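Protocol step 6 of 9: fold each sequence in the batch and record its structure tokens directly after the sequence line. For illustration, a two-sequence batch is reproduced in full.

Sequence one:
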Amino acid sequence: MKIKMLMFLQIIAVALVSVNAQLTEEQMLQHLEEYDNKTKLLCNAQAKANWAVQTDVGNLTKEAAQAEAILAYSSYRQEQYETIFKNAPSYSNEDITRKLKLLKEVGTAALSADDLRNLTATRTRMSKIYNSAKICPFDNQNCNKTTQGMFLDPNIELALAKSTNYDELQYLWEKWRDESGKLMRDDYKTYIDLYNKAAQLNGYSDAGAMWRGRYEEERLVEIVDELWAEVEPLYNELHTYVRYKLLEIYGDKMDKYDPLIPAHVFGNMWAQNWVHLYERIKPFKNASSVDVTKNMEEMNMTVYKMFELSDEFYMSMGLPTSNMSYTGESVIERIPGVNMACHASAWDFCDGEDFRIKMCTKINQEDFIVVHHEMGHIMYYLLYKDLPLIYRGGANPGFHEAIGDTIALSVSTPKHLEKVGLLSGYQNSEADNINALFHMALERVAFLPFGLLIDKWRWDLFSGATPESEWNKHWWELREKYQKIRAPSPRGEEFFDPGAKYHIPADSQYIAYFVAHILEFSFYKSLCIEAGQYNVSNPSEHPLHTCDFFESKAAGEKLNAGLKLGMSKHWSEALNELTGSPNISASALVEYFAPLKDYLAEQNKIMKNARMAEILQEYEVEGSAMCNKLVKAEWAVATDSNNDALKTEYERIVLENNAFTKDYYEKAFKGEKPEDYNDELIQRQLKYLTKLGRDALEIADLSNLTNTQTRMEKIYNTAKICPFNKQNCNLATEGLTLDPDLSDLLATSTNYDELEWAWTQWREKSGKLMRDDYKIYIELLNEAAKLNGKNDYGEIWRESYEDDKLYENVDKMWDKVEPLYNELHTYVRRKLKKIYGDKMDDKDEMIPAHLLGNMWAQSWINLYERIKPYSGGSSIDITENLKNQNVTVLKMFEMSNDFFMGLGLPNNSMSYDESLGAVIKKPDNKVITCHASAWDFCDGKDFRIKMCTSINQEDFITVHHEMGHINYFILYKDQPLVLRTGANPGFHEAVGDLIALSVSTPKHLEKVGLLSDYKDTEEDNINALFKMALERVAFLPFGLLIDKWRWDLFSGATPESEWNKHWWELREKYQKVRAPSPRNETFFDPGAKYHIPADSQYIAYFIAHILEFQLHRGMCLAAGQYVEGDKTKPLHKCDIDSSKAAGKLIENGLKLGLSKHWSEALKAMTGETEISGEALFDYFKPLYDFLKEENEKDSSMIVHVNVILLLGVLLVKYFL
């Protein structure tokens, strides 16, 4: 029997296929008419069954009937698809072609009967969970849900709309998700599987592709992204404004550092509509009200009357009545005692007569608008009801929603609400208009990202791009990305939060709402133009948002022309009928809200500035405390270098500071743009706080970097060498330290070999031992640079100078002073040759690097007595006088403090007060980093100097220099923490050196009683300038080349295999000094200089040595101590001691700290805005002329001697 039946079915199938193949165009037209009649009946039956279930949720009998109706309709469509439409040939008739295109997709009807029943049952279960979900009230959390439980609509929704209790809102938000979405996760997996199966049976890769196919647009994903890009700036302004206002309401309950808003505080379960926040956060509190809810209540408005008013609106445009949609079997109020799906919806029962609205309507403005929206669907049904059923639908899925919303835009205008008697006393002021637009934006604009993301999420589930293990995670990723909201509590995969939204269990596509919210403004603008309510050429005359096309027959005709097409044409044709353009665009929406966007942007900037000011004030307090802690730890190590426990603690605090900095960066400063703020001081702080520098490194890398630097510094600080005359000494007991032992030796010895020994051995015991660590240091800092968006760390260093042409400008400065250096170098080399004779090589103009009285040939001051131009001139070395007068270290500091106070500058005494922690003498009981330094402990009170002070002229000057730093600290101590530093990295050094220029003049040294019998002859002046040049001018090329070398390492221009080679190339090029012995790549000579292992930028010193003379000239002019062209008041003799005018200029520049660009600080002190070597050259001009003349004499003498020798040789040859 079964075999016979199977044979019979095969014969029937073959026959049907044969019929299908033989259908002529006329036959197909006839069949399509029959198909239309049949599907109308089946569609009507299904609609009625669906209606029955939605208005009596949980009725199993009705659910069973619904399943049968769905199956009957689907089975017929599937059978027709398989036998008639699937393989239908092409026809010339355009109408047939379009119908067949639509009929070749049957959606879920393609499923087998069992699968379709399963899908229907799954959707019904999910909808039942949603529609019957109840939760207990916040104040009765253990209630009896049957009798005391709250439904979503209206109970929970009303509570969310009215409450400002943060915890209550969170409770409602979480509990609703527990009782709805969470319970349907397993069913949703079944739903996804079955829907994908249906899609594949329809020829699609997945259900998402099938859904998108309904739009007849291959670029749909790109188009909606483009539309979002158009409107996102407007949404961002609205979101920002609302966030600031909610922060005012909820205070510390919200994270003020989080740019995302908690999802439960919007007055709406899904944060898709923020209109319930309006009264709390509206821009103008006293402007005319646009909420007519109260008026509706006072007028005893009924639900029925709301629908009547809506019907009248459409009829006023010449459109048909929708009376049937809210009378008869329609449900416009919740049915007492019945569990029904309250989500508002409009229904077409497929028979051209029965159209209904289902809505649990409430008497308020929101539902008044919703009524008009739902009736927009009804109007669409009415206008295309005479089309074949296959064409009865929106031109694309977004059109249906757009029509109702288009009408709602007109209905919600104050103009219309006044016209229908729901609003009075509206002033139509600018404030009123902004409020009205804001009210609309809380509904329309706030919705947009939610409308976009729901189907993006579903598409990713359908395609498999999001695995089941990440469903909820991806949901929140999209909500954070687009809505910029955050769940109020952790949401793991045990939850299914999308299911808490009706359209997920109800199987309703949602991108249509996003498209609709874009289209509605295009439709609205077009209808407003048609109604004469908006003039595109003069939009300010009647702004778009004020348009109401109520009673406009012209607008009604245009609407009718687009809607009556249904799906009979591609949606672009319907769009063209309605707007005059076939292309979808968000420009009308942007135009509509333009006045509001401008207002919000302005207000947001004000609130943004205020909020950031609060954040910066908090950072100021916390950052200063952290800075103080870090500096104290660093100080502890610097003043007890061999204490491993202190090093460990310092390293711990470095990591703590890193965590602090990163945390503040992530929560407060990341992504902030200084230019977004009006306040200059805020801009200035953010310029630096939005950069992490090395703190961008991972903890492990930062720890490695800190340890690496600590190791290098320890090598440097603890290095010792044996004396020349005992080269196999016991280093622990007999070894020489750099300071003071080797420094004194290099300063005083003239033993060429001893100097070479000390020079070479120091590099053996310091730099050479840290080469491997330096490689790690370079790699880690470059990694930090990349994390900061830079190519290498040299870029970060240079950035601190705020000079895009730093390379060129430092070279320009060097070009200005190089002729002076060359004359000094030539003169000194000639003098050294006389001292060392054949020990010095004559093959080139280089000077051996160990002969210049300093370990690095950066200062030649210790050569002065041996090579000064006039040996009989007055002495300007006060070292002996300091000792003879029993001047103590403390006295040296006191004298320095007197100098600053004499200028009217602050007292620096705390900085050298040993009882307050200062270290001004080398301790006997511990190893200390003796390099002189000034310290700011970040609390506005604690400023200290650390220095192993010796009683000599050099340290007397250094004391004043370090106290220059202290004064700078004190003068800018009231600036914000991040701006408490020099105007650029060169300023700090320049200020100390500026003071030193005055202090080191013979005039000043005489004035303070440390110099006597100074004759002030021309010879004395040349000697004084020469001595100063041995320190300042000799330093310049060294100050320039160190960072040039490091920049080349950071950038990779110098490979590791040439580090030492490149070092000596630069030293020979700029300093014109040569290593006294071969230096290959086993050495690391740069590391023999403190600033290399100590990670201290050095170009600052070069700039400082240029800048100090420029500042000095400015101060001297103010003090009346220098007059250009007056030989009695040359720049090099100026001493600004006791000049309050000069002190005032210093104060004016220094108190700015980093709060202004360095050019403004320079201007405050000198009236100039560019750093130049001109003042330095002017200062040394008398010396330059003298050296040039002396060097030329020597050169001429050498020529004369060579000529005589040549003649002698020729004569000898002649006589022989």
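Sequence two, same batch, same settings:
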Amino acid sequence: MDSPTDTTVHNIFQAFSLTSHQKDPSRIKLAAVSAAITETCLETLPASSSSPAPSAAAYFAALLSSLSSPSSSPHFLDLLKLLSLTVPHSPLSLVTSNLPALAKILSSIAGIASSPADPADSSNALLRSLAAAVEATVSSLPQTRATYSSPAVTAMLKLLLLQFDDRRPKVRKAAHSSLLSLLSRSASEGSPALSERLCPYLAQVVEATSADNTLPLLHVFPFLSQALPLLLPPGPLVAPLLSLTALKLPPVTSQVLSSLLSLLESGPDLPAPFTASLLATLLKTTSSHLPKADPACQSSYVRLISAALALLSSADPASAARISPAVFHLLVVYCSQGTETVAVATAELRKLASLSCVPASSLPAFRKLASFTASHATVLPFLAFLYCLHPSSPEAAPLLADLFSARSQADASGNKASKTAATDALSQVLAAAGPEAFLAAHPLRSAPGAPVDPAQLWVLDLLKAPAAAAAPSTLAFFASALLPLARKCDAHANSGTSTALEANASRQRVLDVWAAFPQFCAGAKDVGESFPGVAKMALKACTDKRYPGLLLSVCSGIRAVVDSAVEGGDEEATAALCSLEAKVMPALFNLVEALSDPAAADAADTQSNISAAQKLSAVTTTIAVYSKVCTAGFLGSLFKKVMQKLLLATQTQGPENDAKLTNLLDLCHAMAPTLDGGSVSLLVRAVKPMIRSDAHGALVQKRGYKVLLSLFEHHSAAIVGGEGLEATCEFLTGSMMTVHVSARNMRLQCLTHVVKSLETGNKEQTDIIPTVIGEVMLCLKDSNKKTRESGYECLLAMCEKRADMNDFYQIILGGYAAQTPHMRSAAVMALSRVVFEYAREDSTATVLPSLLKTTLMLFREKAREVIKSAVGFVRICVAAMTPEELQPLVGDVVEGLMKWNHGKDRFRAKIKIILKKLVMRYGFEHVKQFVPKEDERLMTHIRKIAERQQRKKEKNGGQTVRGSVYEGDFEDMLDSDEEDSDGARTLMTGMTGFTQMTAGSGKSLKNAAVEKSERQSMKSKAESMASAKSSKSGKVGEGDGVLVREGQDYDMLDASMAKNLKYQDENRRGYNEDESDDSDDEMMEFDDKGRLVVGGEWGVEEGFGETAGDSDEDGKEHAKLNKKMTQFMSAAEDAKEIKRPMKYEKAQEKMKEQDKKRRKTDAANAPGAKFKSKKAGGDVRKKGDKLEPYAYIPLDGKAYTKKMRGGEVEKMSHVVKRAGKGGAGKGKGGGGNKRKR
């Protein structure tokens, strides 16, 4: 019975034999050889064998016999491939006994492959198969010294080594791969046998290398760089390799360094003495041998010594500490070389520092880096990194001094790159060491006429930067070091001895100092001890009218200290903040009351760029944050006082009172998250009258809804729990008629919270949905995007709570019977969104056909907004319904859509997308039968586009050219034309019968709204420009439109004419896209440069011009030249290639004469033309003139409208000429009478 191995070999041969049906000749040949070997093995199979499969030994013997036969030379390639697969499964004793014969056979085959008579391509493949056979054979043997010392194995290895110097890269690569595989196998078993055989050969190649003989070494290097980590041991080759750097040949040096780097990066298994010796050799000899002009070699060298030091530090820290100063010195030297070397050197230094290979005692060695000005962008951040590793070490202080010095030198020299690098580095130091250590190393000093030296203003900028918030700090230091500086600046500003400019600068320094207050609060470690005193000064500073900007800084600092204490879980800081509630909260409330005064608000607005609304927002936000650390009793007493003021304010009306109400409601909103149950009920009762009534301003109502929304978010159970739900629903439905437009978004969010609190399927609770759904649907048409989003969210929440989907659809369909088109359109949009969201559910799929049939009836409407919504719903249904469900309604869908495919209210792009989807599902002919005859051209265009896409798909190997599956937002889907597969171009039939392809009609999903507004803007601009320009002109400018009529001549060779063509029939008014009876069957074409290709009657002589390609891509060629479309080129090209007919030349001359006469007439009729001199420039006063030249020009209001403005400017061109090179008003004589205005 055969073993599993024997069966495996037989299966391999059988698999190769079954590939004879393939078209590849090499596969067919291999299959034939495999079948022949299998047949030979079957013939030698004993009749008494119980298995029909020959053994692996039989296959090995048959292959060996075939290879030894000279007549098998044409099949050596296939036989060697099969041998490589058979040897690993053959008995070891059989392979060992036949090893000499196999070595002899392989040597003879190598000789045949190297003979000149053999073709290059076959010998190449044969040598690669030979290398694979050697690898398979030697790999199957024991990896011992006895194996590799045997003559047969030595001969096989020699075959591989001979291929190392082959001129063919593929052969060398195959030999390298085979020998690397053997070396990996030997190294995995811990046997140095193969390494001992290879090292002498590799050392011989290295020693034989000279400046004139480097090719053998370069052939060996790809193998050596991978083999060096596998050699056991690698030491004997390191010294010869390093000696090659003395040749100073960049290719050789680079390969040597790369090979050694691969050795060091292979792992930490190298012995420490070997690594130390290698590093010492690199530092002593190699550095002087590097080519100075080759940054690649220098970068490799830097990486090599860095990797060696990192490896030595992990194996022998003591040895690494002794040698690291030399390494650091060398790396510092390389930081002054070039840009690439600096980047590599600093990266390696940073890597060594992160591996703790840079002790604090080595920091002075890096001080020289700060002097490399050209490398500041790289070295200064590294110095900051080193300082951050040892911020408290005395050796790190000089590094910080060097950074400050670099910043000062950059200021003096004006080097922006160095200034930016030094500032970023010092910001890193500030975040790590803190402001106290930072200012201790670089204290702020004064200057003559300024409390703070202007050269040190960047320090204040760093202290108030957001990065400083992460630095450890103390409020005591802020109070003792920075606040005195602020007082000093304030005293200098008010001293009376400083100039106005100096006083303003000093006031700005006060603001800069306080701007650092939030950063100190965020990282403060002494809140309990120092915050009470600092808070008193900060709150007092808020009331200083001379510095309105202090309020924002102080509020931001208070919020920062509270957030730091609460989020960090600092109980001591929280208790300290809570003990100050009686001082901080009343002060903040007083600020709100002071800012509520309109006079004070106006004064604040005029004194600073910060508005009173911004200040109020900052204070109320601070109150909300500080409420987190206050006691419930204290908040309750404060809230009662606010409620008293709120109730008193509701008794009166007026703008001033509305402003007061708004501020009080802001206070209630700030305190809402921390209120108890009783306070919540009181606040709800107080807010309801403001929401239900419109007696107060819109802002008051909006704030009321905002407060109510905050209560829903934080106290939902207290409002809608139990009996509160019914009262809340009644209140919201009762206030429907008084809601202001600006409050819709907040109201919808409140409704959403109420709906989400309903019990699913509870009819008594869900009865509120039909009451408010009309309001929600109308909000879907709101101009505010946030309101629309809130409306959709509320609608979907209703759908979830209304268990019966059919019932919910009926509620929405009730909007179809509304009296206004606006409401009917909103109902369609609501239905579209629900179907879009639940299309995959069975409850929606079953009613979708009836919903579509009902919606199709709306195409009889005349309101554009209803039709637009209906088209969007149809688009969603076509994508959601199965082909079987949609097929009976295809006719109705197409009939309804095509009613709106013409005229100014058309939705051509969206309709075309729907038609394409229908064609994809049901075929062109099925959809075409429902399309009106006048729109068959559109279907033809869709068919051609589909065929073009199919050809592109086939050309790309069956891959889809453009995706058609929509993924995105609901509103973007309704508004976008992204699925238009013809590149956002729409087929149009003009009044002249030409079929045009409009460009740019499609919109991307991301830019749908932006492009819509841009398109409307461009449309209005084009209309105004077209009305101001004359259509009789033969040339057009950028943005003009030219109306082409029959019987008129135009300069069609003008380069800008092709962009501004408009065709119109004289017998029709306006521009419509309905198809003409005599229209041709060709589409408008554009060449590959985007130029227009127009058919005409002008002949083109032979030898001139080129014919345009067929844009419909049918592959048909026209027989005659006069039937082809003529390609319009630019004027320069036309002058060289196109010979224009005489008729065109005459027409052009006629147009020039007409234009000249028109200009004369216009000039004679221009205002003030009678004052023009006929003999010279300037104006003259003739006899009988009562008025001076241009003393009076009649004004006409109609002449200066947007439409007529261009014509008036043209008239005045006869009066004032544009300035030339000589300046305005200068003629040849440099003088003349100036015209009076």
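Proceed to step 7 once all outputs are recorded. Observation for sequence two: The two ends are 120 Å apart (CA to CA).
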